[in-house]
Amino acid sequence: MAVLKLLRAPLKYVQGKDALLKFYDETKELGNSFLFICSNSGYKNCFDKLKKSFEGTDCKMRFEIFGGTSSNGEIEKMRNIVIEDNIEVVVGVGGGSAIDTAKATAYYEKCPVVVIPTVCATDAPCTGLSVIYNDDGTFNSYLFYPRNPEVVIVDTQVIASAPVKFLVAGMGDALGTYFEARACVRTDAPSLENGGISLSAMALCKLCYETLIKCGYQAKLACENELITPALESIVEATTYLSGVGADNGGLAVAHSVYNGFTALPECEYTMHGFLVAFGTIAQLVLENVSKEEIKEVMDFCYSIGLPVTLKELGITDIKRVRIAAEKACIQGETIHNMAGDVTQDQLYHALLAVDLLGKEYLNNNKNQ
Ligand SMILES: [Zn+2]
Questions:
Q1: How far does residue 161's CA lie from ligand 1's centre (Å)?
Q2: Beta-carbon neighbour count of residue 62 at 10 Å?
Q3: How close is the Cα of 273 to the center of ligand 1, in Å?
Q4: How many A from CA of 366 to the centre of ligand 1?
Q5: Phi-psi category of 228—alpha, beta or left, where left has phi over 0 and alpha has psi -120 to 50?
Q6: Tens-digit pLDDT profile for the chain (369 aa)?
Q7: Closest residue by Cα to residue 158 from 50, 288, 294, 309
Q8: Cβ atoms within 10 Å, residue 237
Q9: How many A from CA of 259 to the centre of ligand 1?
Q10: What distance in angstroms lies between residue 307's CA and the mean position of ligand 1's atoms?
Q11: Strands of the sheet with 151-155, listed across from one edge
């Protein structure tokens, strides 16, 4: 039997300036007692608005600042709070880790989960999975859920006041979405949710890419200056909803394997996810031998918003070490094997160095202009 097409998404997505003032209105049907699992900055930036949205209700709100890593220890702690306090709704407030902790807590305690992303750096808000770490911060596993979050609420004011590097990284992560899904469609590879890729999913991925090209640069400028413009609104939607739902239902290929590969190198420890995914996207285009125009459009985009196009910008000075990353990117089970004709370690190594050459040339040409 052929793989069945599948499309999954959050039940409700709400976005806009001061959206958090409507938090209670948008979630009140889910329950009466809420546990907010917050990152430090998430708490600082959202508490006042959340409190205000509950004015005049008799709902219970409990705020917890979490330890910073979505580890089993942290999840255990939050589960105990849910039980002790009879919590009915779990809310994640922050970046990827706070959100992943909230999703896992809600899943184990069979509660609905609401997500409030305070940065647009990853696909965590809308997807139906979490990345779980050990208590010492090393990778443990992916946890796949039967559902996506009940509600995702993005307050554009909160996003605009966060450092711009998060938005740029989010655009890097979103850059892979269309090309990775396109590669999966060619080989009938399954999506992250292990379903066939629908026309609707593909349309979201394509719109994600088109929005990045159209609005990326303007949105970066706006965010740097804490301005909320239609371009910033579009990019927040592209990086949070289109990229998240697109990747979940469209599948991954080279770009995310390249990310996993580079995490093997200590010199990339502090390089953000989206930076590595963007570089991996160009490597995928090199492997696919796409047109000069397509590569140029992607490199122009990366350069315009400050995404890396050379290994040096990723923190790598000894190019021989790229072999270690290429090896890890090609281990069994990696999404790079969704590519037509597959990709060997050696081919990937050559492609990564080829991107570096193209990038250096690109930077040189732009310096001389
Ligand atoms: Zn990603």
A1: 22
A2: 15
A3: 7
A4: 29
A5: beta
A6: 678 999 999 999 999 999 999 999 999 999 999 999 999 999 999 999 999 999 999 999 999 998 888 899 999 999 999 999 999 999 999 998 899 999 999 999 999 999 999 999 888 999 998 888 888 777 788 899 999 999 999 999 999 999 999 999 999 999 999 999 999 999 999 998 889 999 999 999 999 999 999 999 999 999 999 999 999 999 999 999 999 999 999 999 999 999 999 988 999 988 999 999 999 999 999 999 999 999 999 999 999 999 999 999 999 999 999 999 999 999 999 999 999 998 999 999 999 999 999 999 999 998 866
A7: 50
A8: 20
A9: 8
A10: 15
A11: 12-16, 151-155, 113-117, 89-94, 33-38, 60-65
Query: What spacing in Å lies between the alpha carbon of 360 and ligand 1's midpoint?
Result: 25
Q: What are phi and psi of 363, to 5 degrees?
A: -65, -40
Residues linked to residue 92 through DSSP beta bridges, in sequence order: 37, 115
d(CA 213, CA 365): 21
What spacing in Å lies between the alpha carbon of 43 and ligand 1's midpoint?
24
Q: What are phi and psi of 121, to 5 degrees?
A: -85, -25
- What separation in Å is there between the alpha carbon of 325 and the centre of ligand 1? 17
Which residue reads 């609005």 in tokens? 215
CB-CB contact of 334 with 257 (8 Å):
yes
Tokens 């990229």 belong to 243
CA of 222 to the centre of ligand 1 (A): 23
* DSSP-derived secondary structure for 233-246: HHHHHIIIIIHHHH
